[in-house]
Specification:
With 406 residues, the protein is mainly α. It has a single domain (2-387), classed as Growth Hormone, Chain: A, CATH 1.20.1250.20. It contains 17 helices and no strands. The chain has helices at 2-33, 38-65, 68-86, 92-119, 126-155, 157-170, 173-178, 183-190, 194-207, 209-239, 245-260, 263-272, 276-292, 299-315, 319-327, 335-363, 366-387.
């Protein structure tokens, strides 16, 4: 099973996150060079998040209707073609359309791989399996910008975009060769209509609202602080500490390295002691590190605070995906629709964080926005720790799950 997960999930995850990491660097530089206004630049850069928000729920329904293999293939194809189209695009509207399509494809890929992990891991080993996935994703996002910067400098921006698209399409080899659905999974998908998928999910939500409501609120808070740090750290370093770009990059790079180093310990903690022992300290440490940022006045102090944030985020590697898989109903009972909703909740927090930071910073200053984001981290740890029951179940090693239920 480990070998199957390696080729079916981990390798394509690295490839896709690597290319998304390249886009995270290339696209802002590209749109600035086009001479667009800042408002239009914001729309272009936010188009990926808009695409994921639009695609999350439909992706969940599609996942219930077709098998994991086919939904992974569709998601990768849409992402790859959208990236290839970027290499041909020079107009605002087409850039936005490409970003939305890449985000929609990513939504289907994210839900399908999440469902695949839920269907093919035991509850007692799921934390390690998903934390490794989270670590692989982090490594790809770390390596992508480095490669993208070098490639664009040597061969041009359009060549770098085309390279992203071709590499993503090469990732199709892995679901084609290594993803295999069981007969039961295929039959349950064929028997589930789109209306039936939503109906079963709504029934499940009503029955389990007492646990799913605080879990969803915690998920929003968790993704808000995770996304907020990506905006706050470079803004504070540049506008308050007046650090050069290379030193800002060093701060973020070291914090990312600390983050990446924690993914496997996070999985061990989740599977041995419980999910709470990973995600509660994760978000409390991130909140503490975020609150310390306004108190820093030098490169070294900022590096210490951001490394603490990286340590906390690394300890939470894969925790929200693991929690979602633990809470999800079984295959054929609305699992895909539920995981689509779970992704939508998380993506709402992730998309909203930069807006929160920018709005408060414009109205007051950057420092109050930092404290607000820190409060979201505190809220994540408190809500998930106090109101969501532990979802690790001590089951027999020979038990085979088709998906976890509460």
């Amino acid at each position: 099973m480990r070998a199957q997960l390696f080729y079916a999930v981990y390798v394509p995850t690295f490839i896709l996150s690597f290319c998304l990491g390249m886009l995270a660097l290339l696209l802002p530089v590209y749109v600035i060079d086009l001479g667009l206004s800042f408002s239009l630049i914001g729309i272009v850069l936010g188009s990926y998040g808009i695409g994921t928000l639009i695609g999350d729920l439909p992706a969940g329904v599609v996942q219930d209707r077709i098998d994991n293999r086919f939904s992974m293939i569709i998601g990768i194809c849409v992402m790859g073609l959208g990236m290839l189209a970027l290499s041909l695009s020079m107009r605002f509207i087409t850039l936005v359309a490409c970003g939305i399509s890449i985000g929609a494809g990513a939504a289907l890929w994210n839900v399908s791989r999440h469902a695949y992990l839920a269907n093919n891991t035991l509850n007692t080993s799921r934390g390690r399996a998903i934390s490794i996935f989270g670590g692989v994703n982090r490594i790809g996002m770390f390596a992508g910008p480095i490669t993208g910067g070098y490639l664009s400098a040597q061969a041009g921006m359009h060549t770098a975009f085309a390279f992203c698209g071709f590499v993503v399409l090469l990732a199709l080899i892995f679901p084609l060769l290594f993803v295999h659905n069981s007969l039961a999974e295929v039959q349950s998908g064929q028997q589930t209509s789109m209306a039936g998928s939503y109906k079963r999910m709504l029934i499940y939500l009503r029955r389990n609202g007492w646990i799913l409501t605080p879990a969803g609120l915690g998920m929003i808070c968790a993704q808000t602080i995770r996304a907020g740090r990506q905006s706050i750290i470079p803004l504070y370093a540049a506008s308050v500490l007046d650090l050069d770009v290379d030193r800002i990059g060093l701060v973020m790079g070291i914090a990312a390295a600390v983050d990446m180093s924690m993914f496997y310990p996070a999985g061990l903690v989740m599977d041995r002691f419980g999910r709470k022992f990973a995600y509660v300290p994760s978000f409390l440490l991130q909140a503490l590190g975020m609150a310390l940022i306004p108190l820093t006045g030098s490169f070294a102090a900022l590096l210490a605070a951001t490394s603490l944030i990286g340590f906390g985020n690394g300890l939470g590697s894969g925790t929200m995906l693991t929690l979602g898989a633990d809470l999800a109903p079984g295959k054929g009972e609305g699992m895909g629709a539920f995981l689509g909703l779970w992704r939508l909740i998380g993506d709402t927090g992730h998309t909203g964080a930069p807006i929160i930071v920018g709005t408060i910073a414009d109205a007051l200053s950057l420092v109050p926005s930092i404290y607000v984001i820190a409060v979201f981290g505190l809220g994540a740890g408190a809500t998930l720790g106090l109101f969501v029951p532990e979802t690790l179940r001590k089951t027999s090693a020979v038990e085979v799950e088709g998906g976890a239920s509460t």
